[in-house]
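Most newcomers find our protein records easier to grasp once they have seen one. To make this concrete, we reproduce a full record directly below:

…
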Amino acid sequence: MKTVAFAVVMVLLLLYVWERVDIVRVGYQVERLKSKKVALQRESDELRVKVSALTAPERIAHAAADKLGMMPPGQGQIVLVRVETTLPTNAGPAMPELRLAKNEVGGRMP
């Protein structure tokens, strides 16, 4: 009878120790994931700043002028095109007017 009681006590003790070790292991895993989350949030913020800097209109205009030789359209190069829509009345608002820039050689317009 003593051996059965001793075996039961040992099994309960081992179960308790296993549970505590598992809790500590999960705690370490949670801390690792928290630090990874902070690192990923920092990287996300850095990438947002980089995207914002790269998509700034001033930067794009400067790159278009310097690298591609582009320039804003000159006088008479912007043509207003009206688009007629034949949408049903329940299709929503009509399409807006479009402004197009057209580069004409020699400055003549059709």
